[in-house]
Every structure is written in structure tokens, then in C-alpha cells.
């Protein structure tokens, strides 16, 4: 395990700069409509390309050869009209026990205007962040998977009043396992996710554990209930953040989802109720799907940039091993 962690951190230890880098907000944003509509839970319950963000170790159990998704989230429209988040994912199965993944994230925070003491505009600068990530999933056993991710992050910042660009590298280490119950249509899934492992003091490394219960009915309807718990990996004062989500699938094509996310006042005091829906269409060995979500703030005193947030994910699966 120590060797795997050092392999992930090695690129940044060699290439990282000693200067103070900004905290990369883009790395802490939840993505994929399915996960968001389930309260942000996904360490154990992630499916499809959502696994590249939730648990890379679970990708080795996908039945598809190629998978691609596009996610669009106009996250901060309640605060800034020109802010949006986009993500592209691609996952390929290699043989029957390994996967390769790629993702590109772009967070547009709009234009930042510098003004003098009189309020006159001096200059306008684009304000954005983006990440490029790659991953590999390996199946060491019939019921277990391990995932490794490497991410390059870039962000605009201002140093002494001048715009500049800062870059860093971070790694992810994920583990997934499932247990079949006495009833073969039911199983317990669980996973561990170490995210944003980096030598940068301004990037928050997080640790999380997730558990999910899944039940398949005889008429192909399916029920999933999941719980995630996360916290900062190296900050002793940080507290747990909870995400609870549920999903019901009708006839393998129609999806209804709901979720709840909670964190303490010391962590941000965000408490959100989420809801969403999805549809999947089939054509031979291919399938296309659409997921949508909507977030509702819980409590009148809670101010969150995610309140009334909405978004969608479009996906396509090509090739099937089954």
C-alpha cells in the first residue's frame, strides 16, 4: 500500500514547486448528475463513468468496452450568471480485469475586473480552473477492485495584483469490494477513497468511506441505498461530511433518485436536499442515457453556491461483454 501511495505522489514530489499554490476549488466540486441527485454519494454506489470520480476500483466490473459522458453544471448561477462547470469522461475496458480512464474538467468563474480606488476599470481577466486526469483500474479478485488516478490541475490566481497561473499534480487511491448476500439478487457494496493526495499545502486531501445496499427484483426493477462519510485527511479540526442517497430503477430504463447532504458549521454548514431522474435507451449492444438533477437548500440561514443548482449528464455505452 505504501508503494502505491508513493508512486502516485512521486510526480508532484519531483515537479512540484515550493511556492504557495491556491486551493483548487474545481477538485472539490461534485460531478455527474446521478451522484449529485443522490446527495453526492458514490464511493460504493457509483455506476458508469461516474466511477471515475466516485471509485475507480469499481470500473473493473463494468460490462461495456467503451463509455463516454458529458456533464454540464451551471453551478453558481445563484451568485454569478457567467459561472459554469463542464466535464468529459472516457472509460475503456482492457481485457476482463483492467480499465483505463480519462477525464477533463473545466470550471469557468467568469471575468474578474480589476479597479482602482475610484472604481474605474483597469483590466479584465478570465478566471478559470481546469484539470486533466487519467486512471487505471485493476481487479485483484473476483469481488474487489483497486483504482489509481493522476490529475494535473491548473488555476488562475493573482500575485501582487497581477494575474498568473499555478499548476500542481495530485493522485487518487480507491478500493472497492462487494459481498453477495444469501439472496443472490441482493448485495452489499463498500469502498474507500483517498482523493487529492498531493504535496501542495493549499490543496485539500480527503478520505472517505462509502457503503451501499442493492436489491434486484424479479421484474428487473432495482433499489439502491447508499451512505458516504468524508473528511479532510490531514486537518485534525475537520469533521465528517455525510451524503445519503437512494435510487429506484424501473424496467432498467427509468430512474428516480433523491439524496441528502450534511456538513457541520465548521466545515461549511451546507445542508442540501437533492432530487433527479434518468432515462436509458438500448440499441443492440449500445445504450444512451440522460441524467438530470436539482438541488434545494435546507434552511433559510444556509448560504451555498449550490442552492437551486441544476445540471445534466449525457452518456453512451458501446460494446458489451455479456
Mean pLDDT: 83
Oligomer: single chain
Gross geometry: globular
**CATH fold assignment:** Porin
* Proportion of residues in extended strands: over 45%
* Total discrete domains: 1
Element order: H for helix, E for strand: HHHHEEEEEEEEEEEEEE
- Structural class of the secondary structure composition? mainly beta
How big is the Rg?
Answer: 20 Å
Query: How are the strands of the largest sheet arranged?
Result: 1-2-3-4-5-6-7-8-9-10-11-12-13-14
- What is the first-to-last residue Cα distance? 33 Å
Number of strands: 14
Number of helices: 4
Low-confidence stretches: 1-22
CATH structural architecture: Beta Barrel
CATH class: Mainly Beta
CATH homologous superfamily, by name?
A: Outer membrane protein transport protein (OMPP1/FadL/TodX)
Helix content: under 10%
What does the main sheet amount to?
A: 14 strands, antiparallel, barrel
Protein traits:
single chain, 322 residues, mainly beta, Porin, 14-stranded antiparallel beta barrel, 8% helix, 57% strand, disordered N terminus
Can you put this structure into words, describing what you see?
This protein is mainly beta. The protein has a single domain, classed as Outer membrane protein transport protein (OMPP1/FadL/TodX) (Porin), CATH 2.40.160. The chain is built from four helices and 14 strands. Strands 1-2-3-4-5-6-7-8-9-10-11-12-13-14 form a 14-stranded antiparallel barrel. The N terminus is likely disordered.
